[in-house]
Amino acid sequence: MPTYRIAPSLLSADFARLGEELKAVIQAGADWIHFDVMDNQYVPNLTFGPMVCQALRKHAVRADGSPVPIDVHLMVQPVDTLAQAFADAGADLISFHPDASIHVDRTLQLIRAAGCKAGLVYNPAAPIDALEWVIDKVDHVLVMSVNPGFGGQKFIPSTLAKLRTIRAAINAHVAAGGQSISLEVDGGVKVDNIADIVRAGADTCVAGS
Ligand code: DX5
Ligand code: ZN
Q1: At 92, is the pLDDT very low, low, confident or very high (cuts 50, 70, 90)?
Q2: What is the mean pLDDT of the chain?
Q3: What is the pLDDT of residue 32?
Q4: Segments of the chain assigned E as strands
Q5: Strand partners of residue 94
Q6: Model-level pTM?
Q7: Which residues contact 71 (CB under 8 A, 6 or more apart)?
Q8: Which ligand lies nearest the alpha carbon of 153?
Q9: CA distance readout (Å), 201 to 106, 139, 165
Q10: Any idea which ligand is nearest the CA of 12?
Q11: 3-state secondary structure (DSSP) of residue 58
Q12: Who's near 12: CB < 8 A, 6+ residues apart?
């Protein structure tokens, strides 16, 4: 039985009350905290940086004192400097879009060397070819089911086929003795489509709006 997780996105929080909003989703059972970083270059929107992550890190704890992983989704270009800054700011997972990094293999190594789990993010129209060549260095795959940049968009149905393809690749990798890799979906996840999403192979769902 896989571990299933819900990762609420702080993008949908009231930014004037971020700390309280963080505590509220943790109290409601959040498994991870999804932290959407937008740079107004890779995507046409601007959110928050490593200082905000660092400020929230100490509040991302459950009632029993256990930390709630911070799942940083970098929608930035270039990637490496900010990836390092988020690792230093207490991120647990750091995912980036491979088309935003000139040297994907190097960026994955940088994130792992900084003590974080390293993830690749695929846009709705992005091919997943690179995964085959770096799968041994990937801890996490994030599949975009909307075009990145904004919350509250509609789920793009072709995502389900992409999830099935990546799930098959991950299962084959694990069956051949490879490390485990989590598979998360991001955008337009609702109560009426989450069952189909999980059946297609996702183990983690972002929940924003
Ligand atoms: C979009 C972000 C998402 C967003 C999802 O670029 O990556 O994480 O918060 O929001 P909903 O769940 O509203 O689609
Ligand atoms: Zn996201």
Answers
A1: very high
A2: 98
A3: 98
A4: 5-8, 33-38, 70-75, 93-96, 117-122, 140-144, 182-186, 204-207
A5: 72, 118
A6: 0.98
A7: 7, 32, 33, 34, 35, 91, 92, 93, 95, 184
A8: 1
A9: 28, 16, 9
A10: 1
A11: coil
A12: 151, 152, 208, 209
CA of 38 to the centre of ligand 2 (A): 9
Output the CA–CA distances (angstroms, integers) from residue 93 to 23, 88, 147, 199, 200, in the order listed: 19, 12, 21, 24, 23
Give the pair of three-digit tokens for residue 168: 């098959």
* pLDDT over 90 percentage in the chain: 99
* Annotated catalytic residue within 36, 71, 92, 139: 36
* Pocket lined around ligand 1, Cβ cut-off 6 Å: 9, 11-12, 34, 36, 73, 146, 148-153, 186-189, 206-209
Could you tell me the two tokens for 203?
């183990």
Quote the ligand 2 centre to 171 CA distance (angstroms): 24
Q: What one-letter code names the amino acid at 94? A: I
- Tokens representing residue 53 in the block: 């992550």
Q: How confident is the model at residue 1 (pLDDT cuts 50, 70, 90)?
A: confident
Cβ 86 vs Cβ 53: under 8 Å: yes
